[in-house]
Amino acid sequence: MMRGRTELEDAYRKLQDVQGQLMQSEKMASIGQLAAGVAHEINNPIGYVHSNLGSLQKYLDDLFAVVTAYEQVESLLGQHPEALATLRLVKQKADLEFLKEDVAALMNESREGITRVKKIVQDLKDFSHVGSDEEWVFADLHQGMESTLSIVWNELKYKAEISKDYGDIPNIECLPAQLNQVFMNLLVNAAHAIEERGVITIRSGTLDGGVWVEVADTGKGIAAENLNRIFDPFFTTKPIGKGTGLGLSVSYSIVQKHHGSINVASEAGRGTTFRVWLPIRQPDGKDGNGTPLPHADTV
After folding, report:
1. Which of 278, 41, 29 is nearest to 133 (CA)?
2. What is the pLDDT of residues 30-44, one digit of tens each?
3. What is the mean pLDDT of residues 252-257?
4. pLDDT (0 to 100) of residue 60
5. Overall pTM surpassing 0.70 (yes/no)
6. Contact indicator for 251, 185 with CB cutoff of 8 Å
7. Annotated region Disordered: where (predicted)?
C-alpha cells in the first residue's frame, strides 16, 4: 500500500514537472515571437540612427575642416586686434581643441553602441527563427551558435572564457531554432558545471558525410555512474528547484529528429565534452524515426 502511494506521488511530481515544462515551452515560444516582432520594429529606427550618425560624422569632418582653414588665416588678423581678441575669446570659451577631440570620441562611441544594438537585434531574430520550427532549411550552424552565444552571454561571462575552434563546415538541412535550443542547453550546462572560473571551448568539423559541433568545459565533470542517465527525462544532479532534468532530454530528442547523434565524454574533476553530429541532408520524410541514438561514451 505504501509502495503504491509512493509511486503515485512520484508520478504526480513528474506530471507536475511535465506541465511546468510545457507551460515554459509555450512561454518561450511566445517570447520568441515577441522578440522577433520587437527586433523587426527596432530595426527600422536603428537603421535611421546608424545612417544619420554616418552623415553627421561627414558633416562634422567638413565643419572642422572649415574651422582649421580659419585657424590658418588667424595670424592675418593682426591688423585688427579687436576682431582677433574676440575670435580668441570665442575659441577659449568653446575650448575648441577639446571639442575636436571629444566630438570625435563621442561619435566613435555612438557608432560602436548602435552597431552593438544592431547585432543584438539580429541575434534575437536569428535565434528566434519564428515559424521555422516547421520549415526545414539549409542553415549555417556557426551563425546559429554565435546568435545563441549572444543570447546566453549573461549566463557565461562571469563563469568562463569562450574559446572557438571552428572548422570549415557546409550549411546543413535543419530546423535552425531547434538546434539553437540544443546549443543553448549545452552552453548553459557547461557554465553551470564550472564552479569558479573556467573555459568553454566550441569546436566544429566534418565527419562521415555530416558535421559535428562540440561544446567542452573545464568544469567538475559527470560521475561515471551518471553518464548513461543524463539524457533520461527528469534526471538531474542539480539541487531541487534548480533544474527540471529535461534540457538534455529535449536536446536528445531534437538531435534524433535530425537523424543525428549526441555523445558525451566526461571525467570527474576535469570537465565534459558534448559532441553533436548531424547529417548535411535529411532523408526523405524527415520524421526522425531512424535508428535509436547511442546514449553516452565514457572517457
Report:
1. 29
2. 455 556 666 666 777
3. 88
4. 83
5. no
6. yes
7. 280-299
pLDDT above 90 coverage of the chain, percent: 25
CA distance 296 to 30: 33
- The model's pLDDT over 214-245, given as tens digits with 9 standing for 90+, comes to 999 999 888 777 777 777 765 565 554 445 45
Number of neighbouring beta carbons within 10 Å of residue 50: 15
Query: How long a stretch of residues is the chain?
Result: 299
Query: Quick one: cell of 165?
Result: 575552434
Distance CA 16, CA 186 (A): 24
3-state secondary structure labels for all residues of the chain: CHHHHHHHHHHHHHHHHHHHHHHHHHHHHHHHHHHHHHHHHHHHHHHHHHHHHHHHHHHHHHHHHHHHHHHHCHHHHHHCHHHHHHHHHHHHHHCHHHHHHHHHHHHHHHHHHHHHHHHHHHHHHHHHCCCHHHCCEEECHHHHHHHHHHHHHHHHCCCEEEEEECCCCCCEEECHHHHHHHHHHHHHHHHHHCCCCEEEEEEEEEECCEEEEEEEECCCCCCHHHHHHCCCCCCCCCCCCCCCCCHHHHHHHHHHHCCCEEEEEEECCCEEEEEEEEECCCCCCCCCCCCCCCCCCCC
Tracing cell 552623415 back to the chain, one arrives at 55
